[in-house]
Design goal:
This protein is α+β, with helices and mostly antiparallel strands and about 140 residues long. About 30% of the residues lie in helices and about 15% in strands.
Length: about 140
């Protein structure tokens, strides 16, 4: 409900949440279709849409880029005592390069996960991942 979403955003802005994470449950359509709600596989592909979803809050003036990066990278690494989460020399090169202004409309055939059932398919989003490094190796390139 909208009131729950507003309360969660207010708590995030007040610093009551330290991290933002996603549920990445990329079930194939066949695992969801033709079943009762109780029998259908639950969840959706969260990884591909986390950044554009957060960028909607940025573009609406509700979160800063620094708050987003801290919540999805810096703080989780610190809390889990991982060597990443920062661009300091010697850190693990897990880096995402994104264009915060690029507008795009995801289509099912564009999705990299095995799940194509996202409610965001067909909606215009703003903010797109362009390049991803995992431990210094390029894992995704979109240019």
């Amino acid at each position: 409900p909208p009131s729950d979403a507003a309360a969660l955003l207010a708590a995030l802005q007040a610093g009551e949440f330290e991290v933002i994470s996603t549920d990445h449950a990329p079930h194939a359509a066949s695992e969801k279709q033709g079943r009762t709600l109780q029998a259908a596989a639950f969840g959706l592909s969260g990884s591909e849409f986390a950044l554009p979803s957060l960028m909607a809050l940025y573009h609406a003036g509700m979160l800063s880029l620094n708050e987003i990066v801290a919540a999805i990278s810096t703080r989780p690494a610190r809390l889990w005592r991982l060597p990443g989460g920062t661009l300091r020399p010697g850190s693990i090169a897990d880096v995402t390069v994104f264009d915060p202004g690029e507008r795009w409309t995801p289509q099912r055939e564009m999705l990299l996960s095995r799940s194509t059932n996202s409610p965001l398919v067909g909606l215009e989003l703003q903010g797109k991942t362009k390049l991803t490094f995992v431990q210094g190796d390029v894992r995704h390139r979109d240019w």
